[in-house]
Amino acid sequence: MTQSHTMRVIEISKPGGPEVLVPAERAVPVPGAGEIVIRVAYAGVNRPDALQRAGSYAPPPGASDLPGLEASGVVVALGAGVTRWRIGDEVCALLPGGGYAEYVATPAAHALPVPAGLGLRAAACLPETFFTVWTNVFDRGRLQAGERFLIHGGTSGIGTTAIQLAAARGARVFATAGSDDKCQACLDLGAERAINYRNEDFVAAMRAEGGADLILDMVGGDYLPRNVKALADDGRLVQIAFLSGPSVELNFAQVMVRRLTITGSTLRPRSVAAKAAIARALEAEVWPLLATGRVAPVIDSEFPLDEAAAAHARLETSAHIGKIVLKVSG
């Protein structure tokens, strides 16, 4: 490695609001066995970063305490046993943490090549959302062509990804959003119908269509019983976050009588092997769609690394459409 032994990072000085994100300096990481070190060009900003900053989403054992679960950049160091990557390769990668920094270490099996036609800025928007959508919508949710799929938060990073992937694979896509402009963005991305949840009941809308075969939800709270009502018989609900809280009273009689499935997952605590399997599936099934332009990340805004606090403030307004990225170098 020819770079400096120290690097700029963004630390969480204490649990709190965006203002607790502060620039600092740390040692450049050294790759362990099976790892690579990436000189970060761009890092994605995601809801789990904000939860970690607030003190409610601790890193798993052994992970960096710095926020940042995805990044793009250039490989600058290889750990023992790494054979796929070479120094100088451009990659994007799912990270255990540490993306808000000039350099980051991650398992080599969690890195993917930058898709043809995409630059490093766009590539930084891929790992966290595409890994999440693939494993929850297509693995756990078993979405099939022709099925009715409802995605809440259609203009979030997860939402814009889920709409495009589901439409590309032949599903009928429905989305909720909080404004007419956001609803139009969902339609532009491939949704058949967008439901403004501020003035329309998504349960009634989906029941009029015969019910949703699959719902992807990150709201939770009082959406849980409403989601159950919105499902078709034999439908599936996949829960990936709880922006409105994880606790609610729910009548499970409907789950039994209508043979519903309620499941969910979180990505960060999963094993290295499980995430590597998702990476392989993405490269085979999704990377060709990115290379042809059939699917593309939606970028809302870009901030310099030192303005991570402003990026988090933007995220928490929920006014964004698509992904927010930090420019780190290059």
UniProtKB/TrEMBL annotation:
Gene Ontology MF: a single term: oxidoreductase activity, acting on NAD(P)H
The keyword NADP is assigned to this record: yes
CDD domains, alphabetized: p53_inducible_oxidoreductase
Entry annotated with the keyword Oxidoreductase: yes
Keywords recorded for this protein, A-Z: NADP, Oxidoreductase
Pfam families recorded: ADH_N (PF08240), ADH_zinc_N (PF00107)
Domain Enoyl reductase (ER): residue ranges: 16-326
Domain of life: Bacteria
InterPro entries per the UniProt record, alphabetical: ADH-like_C, ADH-like_N, ER, GroES-like_sf, NAD(P)-bd_dom_sf, Quinone_OxRdtase_PIG3
PANTHER family: OS02G0805600 PROTEIN, QUINONE OXIDOREDUCTASE PIG3-RELATED
Protein name in UniProt: NAD(P)H-quinone oxidoreductase
Source organism of the structure: Pararhodobacter aggregans
